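[[Local backbone shapes]]
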Amino acid sequence: MKLAEALAERAEATRRVEQLRARVVGSARYQEGETPPENAAQLLADAAEVLDTLESLIRRINRTNATVDLGESGTLTDALARRDVLRLRHSVVTAAADAAAGSGDRGYGRQLRSELMMLAALPVAELRDQADGLARDIREIDVRIQRANWEADLLD
């Protein structure tokens, strides 16, 4: 099985657990004289089975990520960490640019010449350029990660 297939299975198992959790909660209590919509104990057993499978998948995925070499990017785990930090960095830079540009300041513009003018404390254009560069870096590392996902075999 390829790593990408395992990732898809992990996502499906996670969705399945969430669905089972919601069904257990909906069936855990019922009114006297009524029957519960579903057997909550069986749903819990089903959830436990899916969770065991999910744990095994996560272990194998993590083991595989730690061993797949992406060259100068390090391992796949290193690339994932890099991508996560790039996304956070992009978010911070974009938020800073938006704040400096006055995005979201609806209703706070100057009404009269005697009112104080708001000034940007940060260079908005430079921040936008930096955000664009970060977005490009994110796309590039994401492509390398996706390629590795489809090329790497999942470890046992």
Q: What stands out?
A: DSSP finds four helices and no strands in the chain. The chain has two domains: 1-67, 70-156. Residues 40-67 form the longest helix (28 residues). Helices lie at 3-27, 40-67, 76-101, 124-151.
